[in-house]
User: What shape does this take?
Amino acid sequence: MQLRDNDIKVNDEPKLMLEHSTERNHCISVEDLNIALLLKGVVSYFLVSKPPKEEYESSSFDDRIVLTYYSAAWDPHTTRLGKAEEARLDYHGNKLEQKVKKISRILSTIYAIPS
Assistant: This one.
């Protein structure tokens, strides 16, 4: 959920459950990179390791991909996401139609006539 909240695409449906799968299935897509996901039981994951301090410090910022927030702003107990989800569903759990709010503006010009 944190990845999605950080605008990272997460395709977590396993390839074995798809009739026609591609490299874009069961992966995390960020920028032009697809990180393939593996399964352990029913949990999707990918292997990571912490690089040595020297390697991290000598790497370019352009070579890094950030998947999470820089700050501790992420709160897995927040009610924000649940409220946002509920606001988009009716009492049957169906997605509500998004109403487009029309805004009309009147543009007027007032000229002062010197007396």
Notes: The first helix runs from residue 2 to 5. The beta strands are 9-11, 27-30, 33-36, 38-40, 43-45. The chain has a mean pLDDT of 80. Residues 2-49+62-87 form one domain.
